[in-house]
Specification:
Blueprint (H helix, E strand, L loop, with lengths): L1 E6 L4 H11 L4 E7 L9 H7 L4 E4 L3 H13 L3 E4 L6 H14 L3 E3 L5 H14 L4 E8 L9 H11 L22 E2 L5 E6 L5 E9 L2 E9 L6 H14 L2 E3 L7
Parallel strand pairs: 1-2, 1-3, 3-4, 4-5, 5-11, 6-8
Antiparallel strand pairs: 6-9, 7-8, 9-10
């Protein structure tokens, strides 16, 4: 049995993860960690009272980096669903994971459909010279752009140096109107609106044609198969992985 603790257990995603773990016959939910409710307050406190194989973290951008460093320095494999980590922070966690031989699985999105959307966008990037991304989330999401949008742009950038072919010089009369510039000059636009959970459009253009690749999450349960897949993977392999796409054929 894989002994799993959930950090951020009383949040919307955390509650779904707890239920999914309890319903999986290969796992045992040994600890709920959250600053609210009837839970352990910190990872350190939970570790003092129970043995933990894997922590699943769905907390906040401001705490995930410290949580991850603690786990990797103390022999606890970690699956990270919290977004907002900077590139240099991800690089440092990769080094900690490799140096200590402790598993670290970071996934900007655990939905298999979203992962396929990213894969399709990378495939299409070979054939289009212009692209932009629109990501749409609920208005309680604190970080922007989303980790999914950043990961999508990163994957697309592996195919091309720039996606602004023949764009004219641009002048913003309102700052930020063109969104943020990411890898390979891909513009990312972030929408925050009640009613959404998580959606993303990748728009690719060429002379005479537009290709739009879109994924919508309507229920947080869609993330659970990917979360459980990551828990099982990180327990067995104890290495560093960035993106569910790396373990989906």
């Amino acid at each position: 049995m894989i002994k799993v603790a959930v950090c951020g257990a009383n949040g919307k995603m955390g509650r779904e993860v707890c239920e999914a773990v309890m319903n999986d016959s290969s796992m045992n939910l040994v600890a709920k960690i959250d600053i609210q409710g009837d839970s352990y307050r910190t990872i350190e406190e939970a570790k003092r009272y129970t043995e933990i194989d894997v922590i699943v973290d769905f907390t906040q951008p401001k705490v995930i980096y410290e949580n991850a460093k603690y786990c990797l320095r103390n022999g606890i494999n970690i699956v990270i669903g919290t977004t907002g980590l900077k590139d240099e922070e991800i690089s440092f966690l990769k080094k900690l994971s490799e140096d200590n031989k402790v598993g670290c699985f970071i996934a900007p999105n655990f939905s298999t459909g979203a992962v396929l959307m990213m894969k399709f966008a990378k495939m299409a990037a070979k054939y289009f010279d212009n692209a932009e991304i629109i990501e749409l989330h609920h208005n309680q999401k604190k970080d922007a752009p989303s980790g999914t949008a950043i990961k999508t742009a990163l994957m697309m950038s592996e195919e091309k140096e720039s996606f602004k072919k023949d764009n004219c010089p641009e002048v913003e009369t309102i700052e930020g109107a063109r969104g943020g510039t990411s890898y390979s000059d891909i513009q990312i636009h972030s929408v925050r609106m009640p009613g959404y959970i998580a959606s993303q459009e990748v728009i690719l253009g060429a002379a005479g044609q537009i290709l739009t690749i879109r994924h919508d999450s309507m229920d947080r349960k869609c993330y659970m198969p990917g979360v459980l897949m990551a828990v099982k993977y990180v327990k067995e392999h104890k290495n560093f992985v960035y993106g569910l796409d790396n373990i989906i054929d």
